[in-house]
Amino acid sequence: MAFFKSQNVALIGNSGDITRDGRSEDIDVVVNKLSSVNIPIYTARGNHDCSNECASDSEWQKIEPNGTIFEKAVNNEVFVFLGMSRVDYKNPFTSEQISKLRSILDKYKNRRVFSSKNK
Length: 119
Fold this sequence. Notes:
This protein has 119 residues and is an alpha/beta fold. Helices cover 30% and strands 20% of the residues. The chain is built from 4 helices and 5 strands; from the N terminus they run αβαβαββαβ. The chain has helices at 2-6, 24-34, 57-63, 95-107, and strands at residues 12-14, 41-43, 69-74, 77-82, 112-117. The strands form 2 sheets. The chain has a 3-stranded mixed sheet, covered by helices on one side. It has a two-stranded parallel ribbon with strand order 1-2. Strand 4, helix 4 (95-107) and strand 5 form a beta-alpha-beta unit. Helix 2 (24-34) runs parallel beside helix 3 (57-63). The chain is flat and about 40 Å long. It starts with a helix and ends with a strand. The relative contact order is 0.19.
């Protein structure tokens, strides 16, 4: 983490699979590790995270309290995190997520937007 701090990193983004297979034990390990980092860390839920206990929104919120789609604005740049809602590679996102994504992109249409989508 010293390297990130020396580079003035504003946030760390993870595009999914922060757990091996979404088990409670994995969730606890991730939460404990992230609690010691003094840089904001945001993550999208990946296919591995959609397995087992981590598939429920309440369990996922232990790792990422912002849910499965959210944005973070830093200076004049916007980071969008869109995580899988289920392990279904043809339909990994809900209609609500897609609608919210459209709304976010419209809101920031005049800014540079980075996406951390996991599929």
